Amino acid sequence: MKTKTTILFLIAIFMIACNAEHKISIEDKKFDKYFFNEKNIPVVEGKVLNLTDEEIENTKLEYSIVTPFDQDQFQVKKYGILNADGTFELEIDYAFPYQQIWLHIGESFYAGIYANSDLYIELDADSLREKRVYMNGAGVKYLGTDGELNTFLNNHILYKREEQLSIAEKLSTLSRDKNLDYESFLSKYDSLYILLHNIDDEFIEKNPSPYSWILKNERLSEYYGDLCVRHWSPTGPKMSENLFNDIINHKPYLVSNNGSSFYNYLFTYLGRRAGKYEPIIVDDFLGYTKLSDAEKVKVNEYSNIKAQSERGNPFDTIRFRELSESIYPLLNDTITAFQTSKTLKYIDSLFTDSKADFLKLKLTSKDPKEKKVIIETALNTINTEWCKEILESGYKESIEKMASIERILKGEKSFTSTKNIGEPIAEMPFGAKLYKVDKLKAEELLSNIKTAFNNKALILDFWATWCGPCLDEMPFSKKLREEFKSQPIEFVYLCTSSGSDIESWKAKIIELEVGGTHLFVESSIESELMKLFSFGGFPSYAFIDKSGNYKAGAISRMSYLEKEELKKLLVEK
Fold this sequence. Notes:
Main location: other
CATH architecture of the largest domain: 3-Layer(aba) Sandwich
Subcellular location: Cell envelope
Keywords: Cytochrome c-type biogenesis, Disulfide bond, Isomerase, Redox-active center, Signal
Organism: Tangfeifania diversioriginum
GO molecular function, one term: isomerase activity
């Protein structure tokens, strides 16, 4: 097939281009030494010229750093300040090569920058007042060692922008088409990527640069990553061995959206290939779990009833259901460790120690208790020092989060008025009470919310006015809230201030007519609160029962939460 042949040709050209010795990837063995050399931590500084004193005081500086860690830490949100003279410096924690940072300064500048050595960004406020700049434009200068790199890559994003976006939309539509046969999908998929490769080549020809290889590397990371997603389904087509070998041998050189997504998507696919998601056979775990004698009797009873059902004999269906719901929590730690071990062994069989150990950083869970078990299981298999340091840090963080959430939710605190959860803004006729939160610390806010609704269960809904999936879920949340009005449960909606304002927030609530408690939360406070629950994006949901117990993973989407399931959550202890 011509398209496949062309793609392979492009890949071959790319592999030749990437053989230069000076490039380093986080999966390389030599990266271990690179990571621990503090001189390799890049420096990003800058200055906004021609700002008034009032503008300096009111201009927000926010940035999200792309990381190579697990999906929950895909991007780490940070906040900076403009000094009195308009200068600023970004805080970068690790020595990662070509690390992508999404930088937002006020309402006038937004760009994806790349930090590898040193970068200085000079912005002219006089020009930016006239026209907001996206990526690059009038009033923007990228200087320093990484200046040419950033100018080249941001100009590429803008090159034939509408055409690139149109192709990306077609790729998205193609990926969602589950009725298309596999061969037709591959043919159309390759054809669209060839169009993107052609745009890249045309841009490179017009803008010769020593960084041209980065465009090829980024495009292949995107290409292979999306193919991994296509093969996630266990009922879908099997990936050919040739394609599988090409994918596992691909090496991203950037810690970017495309590079990190490739590793995340590959890791998920490897987990399925390793059999992580195959049905669990409870009997297999009896010899490995720390069950009490009474609990072992319960598991044996479950196994006996299950055997009766499989032989077609009459059995107690009600008792079987009760046992099914009770024994899996007893075995959860053991099952988690077992599934993790399957993935670890498979990864070790495929890759060198340095690459296998890096991929193990992708192991995670939104439940801090599960995450603790996962890290304990993985740590014994890691030989690469930088990976071990990151995983040990994650282990410590999980322990601290478990203790922090328990301390906040269980802590007793007197309640005097609803002002403890923020400044009252308005009360709507459809039962919505609106508050502004810009002064409390994240832990204090969580504690105050629990105290304000004592003896009630809580659903915390983290959302944003610009988040499409968040808005899509609101009607389901509204319906459940109305159905549970008489029950001891409070729906608390925490909207981030990032990318929005109070009037837009109020307008969206009025448009949706969603009752309940609504908080407009300053973005840094919301970000810290979400970190407590290991939430990485919007929408995210936390369920806390009336006794103050956080039920990790109880709600993934409001549209998935059935009425009977919520009833069950309310009565569980």
